Amino acid sequence: MQVIETLAEGLKREIKVIIPAKDMEQRMNERLADVKDKVRINGFRPGKVPTSHVKKMYGKSIMAELVNEIIRDKPSAILSERGEKSATQPEIVMTEDEKEAEKILSAQADLEFTLSYEIIPAIELKSVDGIKVTREVVEVSEDEINEQIEKIAESARTFETKKGKAADGDRVTMDYLGKVDGEAFDGGKDEDAELVIGSNRFIPGFEEQLVGLKAGDEKVITVTFPTEYPAANLAGKEATFDITVKEVASPAKTEINDELATKLGVESVEKLKEIVRGQIESQYGNVTRQKVKRQILDQLDELYKFESPSKLVDAEFENIWRQINTDLAQSGKTFADEDTTEEAAREEYRALAERRVRLGLVLSEIGEKAGIEVTEEEMQRSLFAQLQQFPGQEKQILDFFRNTPGAAASLRAPIFEEKVIDKLLTEVSVTDKAVSKEELLADDAEEGDKPAKKAAPKKKTAAKAEDAAEGEEAAPKKKAAPKKKAAEGDAE
After folding, report:
1. How many Å apart are CA 4 and CA 474, to the nearest integer?
2. At what angle are helices 394-403 and 376-389 packed, to 10 degrees?
3. Which ranges are annotated Basic residues under compositional bias (predicted)?
4. How, if at all, do strands 12-19 and 111-118 pair?
5. CA–CA distance, 333 with 321 (Å, rounded to integer)
6. Is the pLDDT of residue 453 over 50?
7. How many angstroms separate the CA atoms of 373 and 355, rounded?
8. Closest Cα to residue 349, out of 472, 445, 469, 474?
9. Intrachain domains 2-118 and 158-253 with the same fold
10. 159-218 confidence digits (pLDDT tens)
């Protein structure tokens, strides 16, 4: 077998592989000799079939098997012998001419194919002694714990009928009928609907117009559906709602005590506070973690400058670009609305993709040199977390991870990366800093990973893509409530 390097330009490599026809024929004959003793053909006793006859019947199919095995196994063996790692699956090119292929299968022509790939560059690890990070820490106060408990207690809150006018926080029971251009629309009608004023369950402007109404009142209110409303036939439209108030009830005062804890399924108020404190600390801890991680990545970015495999960058850019366009489509905005152009945004996110790939290679090298591994138990926990996110679709998700090449890597990669960050945190200089909740959660989307701030789309678009690319979140997120009625829930 001949292995000839035909291209070595930057990270790009091209290898021509030639296996002489006589070598292929020898391999085929060895395989035929094994088949000869097993094959059963009418007119011949087992093991007595002439080799020439077996070759005539099975020669080409056996040769095809050999070609497939070589194409499958040789590339990785060749790269290993060369001491190279391919950034992606090598591209294999061989003849598509039927006559040439026929000669190869008949052992009358050499088997030739070409490997094209990009190598992962050699990375010389540098000292991280100079990396310094600030870890922001929030002290959770008793008032914040009580405030969170009160929010949780809203699900168990009782209401008492009142004779006066509805105020913010009161529960209004009503019948309503929604109309657009004087015509009722699907999903715009309900009877005995209960709505707590200030809960932001209904579209903006709806709840505020209930303030001041009392049982027995009738009123027509006018609202405008948001332009991004999910129902296209209602998005951006002005609508009226005929309201008949049937009851107004005020919330009973919430007392944080053992009785409330029992209603919420906890044995005591102290245990409830302990649980809530843990949840808040976990939320803040996640934000702190991501900010520390970003500081480490920023400083690693300054330490390591090298060419990244273009195909990996292309793939990362496509992921980010797809998210950007999805966000713009969902918000009904354009690049012009975000004070940029498509060309400038492409350049911006191409740079972000290149950074992401480069840092990924650095973290991979650090983890490999440190002997960091992802255990099967960790993989199973990650898979279980995926299943919890999509109830009812467990089978499809399991099938996807079982049957999709590379899918398991999408579970492994973030676990591996976090373990590398954990290792780095034991080696870099970390200074704790007490901050307020507001300081911790302050939007720092304009800092850190931005490769070119002035070209970035404003508001949340850039931040979402950046966080998605780095696996980071800017703040704890609440789950959006399902939209049950056409009048409901765009405040979220």
Report:
1. 50
2. 140
3. 453-462
4. antiparallel
5. 15
6. no
7. 24
8. 469
9. no
10. 899 999 999 989 999 999 999 999 999 989 999 999 999 888 899 999 999 999 999 999
Rounded Cα–Cα distance for residues 386 and 411 (Å)? 9
What H or E segment, with its residue span, contains residue 461? helix 459-470
User: Crossing angle for the helix pair 342-369 and 269-303, nearest 10 degrees?
Assistant: 100
Rounded Cα–Cα distance for residues 219 and 151 (Å) = 30
What are 336's two structure tokens? 């012009």
> What is the spatial distance between Cα 22 and Cα 30, in angstroms, rounded to a whole number?
12
Cβ(487)–Cβ(178) below 8 Å: yes
Signed CA dihedral, 286, 288, 294, 296: sign only: negative
Exposure pattern of 426-441 as b/e (b: 16+ CB <10 Å)? eebebeeeebebeebb
Q: What is the dihedral of CA 305, 307, 310, 316, to 10 degrees?
A: -10
Q: In the Cβ-directed half-sphere of 137, how many Cα atoms lie within 13 Å?
A: 9
3-state DSSP assignment of residue 415: helix
Q: What is the pLDDT of residues 150-170, one digit of tens each?
A: 888 876 778 899 999 999 989
Reported for 216-220, long-range contacts at CB under 8 A and 24+ positions apart, including other chains, are 216/245, 217/243, 217/244, 217/245, 218/242, 218/243, 218/244, 218/245, 219/243, 219/245
The answer to whether the Cα torsion of 475, 481, 485, 488 is positive or negative is negative
Per CATH, the number for 266-470 is: 1.10.3120.10
In sequence order, the β-bridge partners of residue 190 are 176
8 A C-beta contact, residue 451 and residue 348: yes
Q: Cα–Cα distance between 22 and 107 in angstroms, integer?
A: 7
Q: Is 284 exposed, middle or buried (0-12, 13-18, 19+ CB in 10 A)?
A: buried
In this structure, the strands spanning 218-224 and 159-161 are unpaired
With beta carbons less than 8 A apart as the criterion, state whether 135 and 433 touch. yes
Question: Where are the chain's structural domains?
Answer: 2-118, 158-253, 266-470
CATH for 2-118 (3.30.70.1050, 3.40.1390.10, 1.10.3080.10, 1.20.120.330): 3.30.70.1050
Helix (H, G, I), strand (E, B), or coil: what is residue 26?
A: helix
Cβ neighbours of residue 278 under 8 Å, at least 6 residues apart?
none
Residue showing tokens 């060419």: 307
- CATH for 158-253 is 3.10.50.40
Mean pLDDT check: name the lowest of 27-36, 230-239, 435-444.
27-36
Q: Which regions of 65-131 does DSSP assign to beta strands (E)?
A: 91-94, 111-118
- Residue 425 pLDDT > 50, yes or no? yes
